[in-house]
Specification:
Largest sheet: 3 strands, antiparallel
Mean pLDDT: 86
Low-confidence stretches: 1-18
CATH architecture of the largest domain: 2-Layer Sandwich
Oligomer: single chain
Strand content: 15-25%
Radius of gyration: 25 Å
Structural class: alpha+beta
Order of helices and strands: HHEEHEEHEHHHH
CATH class of the largest domain: Alpha Beta
Length: 240
């Protein structure tokens, strides 16, 4: 006699849930779309732009024909290094009649990024951040997600200088990188700064571009340890 297998109704079949077609206008739509994402495609519950891009065609049963970004404002000293990008998505819905008005859809999303709304680690790349955020917003709009924000739109560690005076200054990431490379190659960072004619009185006042040059120099020495001048030898952890 075959024993009947009991199914706990409280335990949902994930594969069945994900394959179930949900109407885009229903209250279940948000949960359905977010359920298509993997755990790796969410950060603190918020979907990543990469994740939304992957499941867009699956959720809407469509084909993306164009994905385009336009920089409408480039960062410069007169606009607080602010970048504004508009991202447009064009897609064709499947399963409809041949009426192009119904099948062909276009959505857009815009984002502007500057030191005051961007994580410090990305503050020197406002165009790239704005592009990702704009695409995320376009994807959310096309998917008709309600009260959902893409992970990249959330800044958790923004610039603490409200005047933006440190926008072009060395970042914590650069300082940490310099410290690691100096330690590996046994190089005194302060002596290296002096050799490069960079004022090291206040490390945080070093410009971003100057820091790039220091890292480039450290990388060169790391590849050729025999070329390190004797005056630079001797790592000192107190250089900052």
């Amino acid at each position: 006699m075959t024993k009947e297998k009991k199914i706990d109704p409280s335990k949902k079949d994930i594969s069945t849930t994900k394959s179930k077609k949900v109407d885009i206008n229903s209250l279940e739509w948000n949960d359905y779309v977010l359920g298509l994402l993997s755990d790796e495609e969410k950060i603190d519950g918020n979907p990543t732009t990469d994740g939304l891009r992957r499941i867009f065609e699956i959720a809407l049963d469509c084909v993306i024909t164009q994905s385009h970004s336009e920089v409408v404002q480039a960062p410069d000293v007169n606009n607080e290094k602010r970048a504004t990008v508009v991202h447009s998505l064009t897609f064709i819905l499947n399963g409809l009649d041949d009426n192009p008005t119904l099948k062909n859809r276009t959505v857009s999303g815009a984002a502007d990024v500057y030191w005051g709304n961007c994580d410090k680690v990305y503050r020197n790349h406002p165009v790239a951040v704005a592009e990702t955020r704009a695409e995320g917003r376009a994807l959310r709009r096309g998917l008709r997600l309600r009260k959902v924000v893409a992970a990249e739109e959330i800044a958790q560690n923004i610039e603490d200088d409200i005047d933006g005076n440190s926008v072009n200054k060395i970042s914590d990431q650069q300082m940490n990188f310099m410290d690691v490379m100096g330690k590996r190659s046994n190089i005194n960072i302060k002596e290296l700064l002096l050799d490069l004619s960079i004022d090291s009185t206040n490390i945080k006042n070093i410009s971003h571009d100057a820091a790039v040059g220091v890292i480039r120099e450290l990388s060169k020495y790391q590849q050729n340890l025999n070329e390190i001048p004797s005056k630079l030898v001797g790592y000192d952890s107190e250089w900052r």
